[in-house]
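--- STAGE predict ---
source: upstream dedup step, 1 unique chain passed
mode: sequence only
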Amino acid sequence: MYKVISYQIADSIDIKSCKVNFKAKLLYSDADELFYEVSGERCLYIFKYGVVSFLNFEAVDISSFLQFIKPFCKNPFEESLSEEFVVETGDTDKVSYNKIEVKAADKDVLRIIMLNVSQSVALDYYSELTSRLLEETNYHTQILEKKGRLAISGTRLKKFIGKTLLLRNRIAENLYIFDSPDETWEDERLDKLYTELKRNFDLQERFRNVSDGLGIVKDNLELFSDILQYRNSVVLEWIVIILIAIEVLHYLIARY
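--- STAGE serialize ---
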């Protein structure tokens, strides 16, 4: 039996620095991920989007590596999100709720499994961030409904918009995690396993939910921005009217 556990430990990880500083047998690498064989039945998978996945690591070894990689992390978390998955060997390839049974647990199969577990925990993280943005947006929407005005300054709104756009950009940068790995293009068994794992973790539906949530936030922020621009334009109009009135008053006083 094999045990996979993936952690979302930071906003992102410097893959290049990890590759230079961590010494183990590198089975696969590109600009976004590193897949290592640490020993015969222990593998390690590092992703640019802040996830590290362990296969058959003891808790003490996981803790030690997470301390090692911390200097290469951007915005490391105090508490990491995690997800576990069990891999067993058997007579057939079969995916269930929290485990998978495979006929042969070779490195390509294990990599596909670790990749999907890591995608799942990353989606948990993005979903959590999106929920926070939705809560904040709903708070301002409720104030608008009750008081007929926004209780947010232009500066705060700009920061809010920036936070939303940053999250959307980060997800867009990591869309590659939903593309099938190259190995699945030429191996029907791997492709079937990858498809079943994606379905098991409900990755596509969860991603759609995150995208829809961010779309709602974006629509609300555009409305807030229009309201603030209207409010500012009204204020400017009144300022112009007052200045004209003062000028007229000065003219009348000077003349009479």
